[in-house]
Amino acid sequence: MPVSGLPPYDSQNIFARILRGEIPCKKVYEDAFALAFHDIAPQAPTHILVIPKGPYCSFADFSASASEADIAGFFRAVGKIAKDLGLEAPGYRMLANMGEHSGQEVPHFHVHLFAGRPLGRMIPA
Ligand code: AMP
Q: Is residue 9 part of a domain?
């Protein structure tokens, strides 16, 4: 369900195509709720994208429209991936862009996991 005033879900977006297996990805994890894979243009030594399996344009759409089971399943998967990759002790950053001002490029909700070095300021000056 698109958020009011925003375009509907585009089933041809690149992450939808990855979910359908039309485009390859470097998969690190998959379950009923989430797929995780390496970002094609990593911005940190570890840069993983975690996407829900359902057709949600953004965090706004996901948080408003997904079932409680899908929301819980997705965020449990994000935590499990970070833990299983050994990111918890050194630490990591979790980030989701939403909409124009954030620079969201792919209109399928996704969480970035950045890790592998000190990550600096949260938002560049
Ligand atoms: P965002 O700006 O939050 O929408 O982030 C989109 C991310 O998707 C960027 O970091 C891109 O490098 C990444 N990306 C785009 N196409 C692919 C792809 N085919 N496989 C993996 N990552 C991708």
A: no
Q: What is the CATH number of the domain that holds 96?
A: 3.30.428.10
Does 110 qualify as catalytic in the annotation? yes
Dump pLDDT digits (tens) for 83-113. 999 999 999 999 999 999 999 999 999 999 9
Global pTM exceeds 0.85: yes
What is the whole-number distance in angstroms between the Cα of residue 114 and the centre of ligand 1? 13
Domain count, the chain: 1
**C-alpha–C-alpha distance, residues 108 and 11, integer Å:** 9
φ, ψ of residue 77 in degrees (nearest 5): -65, -40
- Domain interval for residue 48: 28-115
